[in-house]
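WP5 quarterly update. Target: ABC transporter permease. Source organism: Paenibacillus selenitireducens. Length: 427 aa.
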Amino acid sequence: MKLITRKASVMLLLSLLFLVTACGNSGSEAKTETKTETKTETNQTPTATKESEPAKELPPVKIGVLASLTGALESYGKQTVRGFELGIDYATEGTKTVAGRKIEFIVEDTETKPDVAVKKATKLLETDKVDFLVGSSSSGDTLAVLPLAEEYKKVMVVEPAVADSITGAMWNKYIFRTARNSSQDAVAGAAAIAKQGVKIATFAPDGAFGRDGIAAFKEAATKLGATIVEEQYADATATDFTANIQKIVKAKPDYLFVVWAGANTPWKQLQDMKVQEQGIKLSTGAPDIAALKTMQELTGMEGFSVYYHTLPTNDVNKWLVEEHKKRFNGEVPDLFTPGGMSAAISIVEAVKKTNGDTNADPLISAMEGMSFNTPKGTMTFRKEDHQALQSLYAVKLEKQDGVDYPVPVLIRELSPEETAPPIRTKP
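Structure tokens (predicted):
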């Protein structure tokens, strides 16, 4: 009886042990399963969040473009803006994006008035928070804005203003210029007519553009042996140049070299007063197409050109001409269209070099000495004054079938090295 009881006790104990062990195993497996499920959910949740939430976008590169959309230089401003938009498209292959940042640009009309230019530039810098300034059409407007670039520590790309003082006496390190300056024009203009014993009179608008242009021309021409016998300056908005032309004729020069910009050109009055019939040859830079249409009597004249769409032979210019015709009802790009395009290309290339950084110091380091391709060939920002060295063109105005103005025909391309202007920045 005791044996049976003992056996029963052992069996009961074994049964209890088995039951406890079984329950313990069952609880462990449940916990493991729960942990696995929780772990799986944890792994999946971030993945789902990443898929549902877009990547954070970088802030756009913002550019403020100052241009004369009204006033005496309206056509220049509109050409520049067209070129700038085309340049952004070309340099970004149509994406309007550089270094992962979208490009936005805001155009403001300076009205060809320096005080308005300052007001509009201040708005772009303070309200719109632009990373770059571009402009302006007028040298006067541009000179008024230069101090703001330094004050706000923003890079300004000057286009198309040409006064030497922009990259000379009034320059600061934030200023880069894709436009050529007056001295570059002067070298080209003087090469066409100046030599030992030649007497030259000059005529220009009274302002930074005209006076800087003539000063640079005089320096280049006298080095070649010419003598300047008369200088005349007229109000840029004037329509009657009789008194100026009379003084020029009285000086009996061999050549009259004219620096001019704007719609109110002096060509018709020079023709009406029979200046050429009195033995005075006219010479100038070939202007935009609208002004060329007023220069029928200057057919045969030798001078220089900043740009005419048939002069440069490179892939960038080919793209510009074809794309411009597509977008603007068959029109060809004009005098300042490639300048606007060059300014845009320079900004895109600079931001590529800084990998998207638009702070002034890295941009300046990237842009000094930077070379970039433009419709006029390769330009290079000279380190000393940030003036873009570039090609100009010695030309002769000729009649061509189907064209209602004298066309600038290439005599020879003047290389960037040949037209490099003196460095005029303050020490």
